[in-house]
Amino acid sequence: MIEASNLTVERGGRTILQDYSITLDRGRTLAVLGANGVGKTTLISTLIGVLKPRSGRLRIGGQVGFVPQLFEAPFSYSALDIALMGRARHLGLFGAPGRRDYEITRHYLGLLGIHHLEPQAFNSLSGGQRQLVMIAQALASECELLVLDEPCAALDYKNQDKVLGLLEHLRQAHGMTIVFSTHMPQHAVEIASDVLLMTSGSSYICGPAANALSAENLTVLYDLPIARADFAGVGKHTYAPLFRHDGAHHDAG
Amino acid sequence: MSTYSARMPQPATKGRNLGAVSVLSILTCLLVAAILYSVTIGRYDLSVRDVAYILIDNVHPLVVPYWDPVHEVVVEQVRLPRIMAAVIIGFGLSVSGAALQGLFRNPLVDPGVIGVTSGAGFGGTLAILMGLQGYILLAMAFLFGIGSVLLVKLLSTVRGRTSMLTLVLAGVVISAFFSAAISIAKLLADPFQKLPAITYWLMGSIASSNYLDVLLLVAAVGPSAAAIYLLRFQINILSLGEEKARALGTKVVLVQWIILVASALISAGVVATSGIIGWVGLVIPHVGRALVGASHQRLLPVSGVLGAIYLLLVDDLARTVTTAEIPLGIITALIGVPVFAVILRRLHARGGWSSD
Q1: Across the strands, what pairs with A10?
Q2: Cβ contacts (< 8 Å) between B243 and chain A: which residues?
Q3: DSSP state of B239
Q4: Is this entry keyworded Cell cycle (chain A) (predicted)?
Q5: Which of A96, A103, A139 faces B233 most closely, judged by CB atoms?
Q6: What is the CATH T-level fold of the domain A2-213, as seen in this structure?
Q7: Using an 8 Å Cβ cutoff, are A96 and B297 in contact?
Q8: What is the C-alpha radius of gyration for chain B, rounded to an integer number of angstroms?
């Protein structure tokens, strides 16, 4: 689905990513992890076609849907208005959504269980509900690759679980390919088949989650000791940081 | 993911769409009523029946003319072109204001923000200063208006990309420049004849509108408003932000250009024929949003008709409140400013609006 070889991407005249090569097969889920400012958002902008790579080759084998970070609309659009905008690609420059577009959009709102939110003002919805509407918008574009920028940021645990469960369902039941960025290794443990650990703009680890997602690699990634913790009895595990409280020197100088 | 199940009944939104349609038809009826009312009021009191007979007489005489020939001139040469001008200007400014607010993702934007108003104002001022009138004044105001938008676009485009924030700032810069230029022109103008002419023209008035003005307005506003309406869904998408719009597969730059050029044409046409009429394009879209929601498919037509009604009623005030004409621009500002202040406070209370 994604074939990127030797990608170099600039933003504002500065090289952010250098020589990134990533492959992801159809029907898999890639979690992108990395410290703030390492270029996760740049990578995502490149994947969705908003940024053009300066060099390298990028091939995407299907329509891409994008879900931005916690989103706020500038006007009082209804949830249905927002979801309908996913149909843009299928309408001409002068087109407006017709009956079929409404049907498709409502189908996906129904699929995500947020049918009842349709007439409500998008901005009045909770963060979790908004995230679901944005996912419905991406799905309404009938994409095969779903790219999400920190889909669980600013959501409580319950809503994180909901979104992760939904992504897993979309992959299993609908053969969707998924790329998402996150700051919590736990999210990758739960649903990712592959991970991309971005240590810097020019070095990274990419591979199946089973191999690449390890305490050692995460320790390098976050420059902080990370330990693996196993939940007794359920066969699940997570990764937790050991905070050292020495990152900032408040009174220095 | 290409299959989807049978359609589901959805009464809530259906009601809303129906609501939008009926809002538009009610407003259209109100507009027709306002037009009929406006033809009858003024120095000569005429009934709707008189007006109807006078107008039908042109096509097919129904009754022997029982009216004073002066009434015929008043209806056909004075009131009708003026009413048409008010309706077209109100319609055009409101549609363009709604589109620009969507494009800039900012509810406090109006057609003046892209620099066209003061550019066209300077063109007209220059024409009056040089003793030129009629066609040439129209042409100069029009050309300077379009020219200033191109200047704004040029100023805000860096390496082939235009940031909307820079565009607004460039608009402010160009507007400031032309305002200064207008001041210089006023300074140089003959204080007994040309200065009053310039000042009065800039205040905005459609008192002396004729069919030539109406023709120019139709030519400037008609195609532009149509182009904006055709882009109604694209404006929705652009209002989510440039990056999101690109990701959704929209031709961002093309849509921005069409809306800017169309809005420039509308504003240039308005200033050329009627001087500077502010606040309409800023305030009316907010009323429209309160009636039918933010989606531009519904908002654009509703804003247009609302604006037409509004400006027509304002012009009725302008010509009947006192024996002397009050320039239209003064009344739209007197009404617009307090309404704007209320909107500003409401936006503030809601936590402001999002911008880049």
Answers
A1: A15
A2: 45, 50, 68
A3: T
A4: no
A5: A96
A6: Rossmann fold (3.40.50)
A7: yes
A8: 22
Measured distance CA(B113)–CA(B206) in Å, rounded: 22
Q: How many residues are recorded in chain B?
A: 356
Chain B nearest C-alpha distance from A77 (Å): 5
Contacts of B330 (CB under 8 A, 6+ apart): B203, B204
CA separation for the pair B123, B272 (Å, rounded): 8
Structure tokens at A61: 């084998």
Which two structure tokens, joined as six digits, stand for A135?
């996912």
Q: What angle do CA B307, B106, B151 make, to 5 degrees?
A: 90
Q: Which is the CATH superfamily of the domain at B27-345?
A: ABC transporter involved in vitamin B12 uptake, BtuC (1.10.3470.10)
Please state, in angstroms and as integers, the Cα–Cα distance from residue A188 to each residue in A157, B16, B36, B228, following that order: 15, 41, 68, 45
Confidence (pLDDT) at A137: 96
Residue type, A114: I
ipTM of the complex model: 0.88
Give the A:B interface size as CB pairs under 8 Å.
110
Summarize pLDDT for B304-324 with one digit per residue, the tens: 999 999 999 999 999 998 888
Domain locations along chain B: 27-345
Convert the pLDDT of each residue in A194-246 to its tens digit: 999 999 989 999 999 999 999 999 999 999 999 999 999 998 999 999 988 87
Separation of CA B239 from chain center: 20
The residue in chain B having the minimum alpha-carbon distance to the alpha carbon of residue A134 is B244
d(C-alpha A91, C-alpha B255), whole Å = 14
Among A76, A89, A104, the residue with its CB nearest the CB of B293 is A76
